[in-house]
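Is this the right way to post structure tokens for a design question? Let me know if I should format differently. Anyway, here goes:
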């Protein structure tokens, strides 16, 4: 794994809704009080998926499996110049959606449609762009066809 990789975030769908959380409203916290996706910074030599899997377990109490990731792309990190971060898109199952237990980071969690997230003035801007990249990809069209959207 490249040493230039520093973290991973994911748009996780359950049916047609995204799992989102409202970041804490603390001075100095980037994107304070903004709607965010699961994920965070890399620890040790984690792979992008292992990073996301750990963060999702810590933040929401759910364990992702690699087969649930339907799209991923690396992007330049917005906060660590010269490094990469990964953005993934995945599908949660009903058991995971029902088992969510919100962790200690953030104010609350919710489900939000992709359109609502893209239009949300209090969403993390770079994640809005990454979600838009996915929605314009062939993978999104395939997922919509499979899910009957």
């Amino acid at each position: 794994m490249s040493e230039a990789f520093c973290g991973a975030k994911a748009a996780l769908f359950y049916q047609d809704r995204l799992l989102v959380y409202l970041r804490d409203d603390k001075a100095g916290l980037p994107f304070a009080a903004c709607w965010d996706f699961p994920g965070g910074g890399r620890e040790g030599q984690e792979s992008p998926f292992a990073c996301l899997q750990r963060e999702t377990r810590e933040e929401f109490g759910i364990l992702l499996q690699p087969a649930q990731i339907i799209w991923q792309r690396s992007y330049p990190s917005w906060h660590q110049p010269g490094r990469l971060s990964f953005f993934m898109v995945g599908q949660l199952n009903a058991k995971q959606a029902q088992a969510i237990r919100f962790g200690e980071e953030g104010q609350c969690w919710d489900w939000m449609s992709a359109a609502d997230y893209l239009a949300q003035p209090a969403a993390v801007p770079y994640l809005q762009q990454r979600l838009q990249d996915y929605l314009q990809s062939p993978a999104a069209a395939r997922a919509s066809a499979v899910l009957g959207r």
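Format looks fine. Someone answered above. Worth noting: The chain has one domain: 5-139. The mean pLDDT is 93.
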